[in-house]
Amino acid sequence: MPKPAPDDSIVPVARNKRARHDYEILETWEAGLVLSGTEVKSLRDGRAQITDAYGVVKDGEVWLLNAHIAPYAMGNIWNHEPTRSRKLLLNRKEIRHMIGAVERKGLTLVALELYFKHGRAKVRIGLARGKKLHDKRADLKERDDQRDMQRALRVR
Questions:
Q1: Among 79, 82, 80, residue whose Cα is nearest residue 65
Q2: In terms of pLDDT, which residue wins out, 146 or 75?
Q3: How much is the pTM?
Q4: What is the pLDDT of residues 111-145, one digit of tens each?
Q5: What is the pLDDT at residue 103?
Q6: In b/e form, how buried is each residue of 17-44, taking b as 16+ CB within 10 angstroms?
Q7: Sign of the CA dihedral 125, 83, 14, 145?
Q8: What is the pLDDT of residues 86-96, one digit of tens each?
Q9: CATH domain 10-131 topology
Q10: How many CA atoms lie within 13 A of 43 on its CB side?
Q11: Which residues fall within 8 angstroms of residue 23, CB to CB, at 6 or more apart?
């Protein structure tokens, strides 16, 4: 009989791999999500996509937009809208910091990953600055150089 997962385990649901390629992530936060019942069930099935998801600060609250959570198969008339805006649960101090960075510095809030922690749905959002094409090329070159160095060390 397999052991049950410990309560502090993190169960990944969706990851935005494209975010670290397109943006320079300056700071990250973990935020709770306000979800309906069918959304939670659909997330537990792993049916979510956050590649286009981003955060917006509106009226002193942070909202997650464009996160696609597929309708639950058994949800019938109580199903949710897949791409509705979802409220993020953060401390007031964190929200004030985000407001300052987004409005004054012109940075963006990007969804990095969606997961369950202690049985609750969480999203990791990052304060990001868009990369230019030459920045992306420099990162790719640096990654290739690291791979070549590791390969040379293994051969030795």
A1: 82
A2: 146
A3: 0.81
A4: 999 999 988 999 999 999 888 888 889 888 999 99
A5: 84
A6: eebbeebeeeeebbbebebbebbbbbbe
A7: negative
A8: 999 999 999 99
A9: Small Protein B; Chain: A; (2.40.280)
A10: 27
A11: 108, 110, 126, 128, 129, 130, 131
Determine which helix (DSSP H) or strand (DSSP E) holds 101, and give its type and residue range.
helix 92-105
> Tokens in use for 16?
């935005």
| Domain residue ranges in the chain | 10-131
- Rounded CA-CA distance 38/73 in Å is 9
Placement of tokens 């969606």 in the chain: 114
Query: pLDDT confidence of 6, banded at 50, 70, 90?
Result: low
3-state secondary structure of 70: coil
State the sign of the Cα–Cα–Cα–Cα dihedral 138, 139, 140, 144: positive
CB atoms within 10 A of CB 71: 15
Supply the DSSP symbol for 77: G
